[in-house]
Amino acid sequence: MQDNKFLTEHFEASRARLRAVAYRMLGSRSEADDAVQEAWLRLSRADTGEVQNLGGWLTTVVARICLDMLRSRKSRREDPLGPHVPEPAVDPEAMESEAQLADQVGAALLVVLETLAPAERLAFVLHDMFAVPFEEIAPIVDRTPVAARQLASRARRRVQGASPVPADGDLTRRRKVVEAFLAASRDGDFEGLLTVLDPQVVFRADAVAAKMGGPAEVRSAAAVAELFKGRAQAARPALVDGVPGIAVVFGGHLRIVLNLTMTGGHITEIEAVADPATLGELDVALLDSP
């Protein structure tokens, strides 16, 4: 075991970040403190001599503890007063650090996070808020990196869909972008595709979609436009978890969903999902084509 003084100093230096991770995961100051304290107990008992990144190890431990707490909370459902409501980050006697934490998170976001499944919440919080790579998130949620990315993507769409004003405008504008993309794809209109794609757009496919003959990843507007030119004949606009996207239907069965991320009226990311288990978790409603 490493020197106890070294571990104590490193843990104290990491405490604020660990508490921020736990608070975003749990929405409760008291539970966040409990999670951080449990992480210290595990650190004090663990043999960390071979650990090269102690900060990353601590983040993983806190994340696992929080995930267990969230799953326990979901399974009990004992609260007779209704669903769990996040605690406010501050009270009249709170310290300045607590006020800063509240400013960074926001009560509205915490309420939305409460609607996510535990694994979705963990993937979204760790990746989108703390830039933890999916390769490190995957073993925590017992998924592959691709599946962990899908968890975060699904959570991100739900968070955006629950916001009073979506980051890239209203749903009508998003649908117009989808329709323009599909029309250009069906017509083989390369230039038309470029007009709705961000120059740095990224296309990613899960393992099942990639086995259908397409690439696992493509970057740049030109490459993505070439990929989709003339290929959307069976695709239809759809609401995917309440957000405009694209569904590919063959023989009356949903085969592929394209999750779209948009910024400023342009598509910045396309995620092709074909894994049947993942498709079964999505709420997909087909829309009438224009």
Report on this structure.
The chain has 290 residues and is an alpha+beta fold. It folds into 2 domains: 159 residues, Butyryl-CoA Dehydrogenase, subunit A, domain 3 (Up-down Bundle), CATH 1.20.140; 116 residues, Nuclear Transport Factor 2, Chain: A (Roll). It is built from 13 helices and 7 strands. Strands 2-1-6-5-4-3-7 form a 7-stranded mixed beta sheet. A hairpin with a 2-residue loop joins strand 3 and strand 4. Helix 2 crosses helix 3. The longest helix has 23 residues. The chain is elongated.
Write the layout of secondary structure elements.
Elements: H1 4-26, H2 29-45, H3 54-76, H4 96-105, H5 107-113, H6 118-130, H7 134-141, H8 145-162, H9 171-186, H10 190-196, E1 197-205, H11 207-211, E2 217-219, H12 221-228, E3 235-240, E4 243-250, E5 253-263, E6 266-273, H13 276-281, E7 284-286
Parallel strand pairs: 1-6
Antiparallel strand pairs: 1-2, 3-4, 3-7, 4-5, 5-6
Helix pairs in contact: 1-2, 1-3, 2-3, 3-6, 3-7, 6-7, 6-8, 7-8, 9-10, 10-12
- List unreliable stretches of 5+ residues: 77-105, 163-169
Instruction: Please give the largest β-sheet.
Output: 7 strands, mixed
Total number of distinct structural domains: 2
User: Could you tell me how far the N terminus lies from the C terminus, measured between alpha carbons in angstroms?
Assistant: 65 Å
Q: Reading side by side through the largest sheet, how are the strands ordered?
A: 2-1-6-5-4-3-7
Overall 3D geometry? elongated
* Structure summary, number of beta strands: 7
Structural class: alpha+beta
From the coordinates shown, what is the CATH architecture of the largest domain? Up-down Bundle
Mean pLDDT: 80
**In the CATH scheme, what's the topology name of the largest domain?**
Butyryl-CoA Dehydrogenase, subunit A, domain 3
Portion of residues in helices? Answer: 55-70%
Q: Beta fraction of the residues?
A: 15-25%
* CATH class bucket of the largest domain: Mainly Alpha
Oligomer: single chain
Which value, in Å, is the CA radius of gyration?
A: 22 Å
Order of helices and strands: HHHHHHHHHHEHEHEEEEHE
Helix count, DSSP H or I runs of 4 or more residues = 13
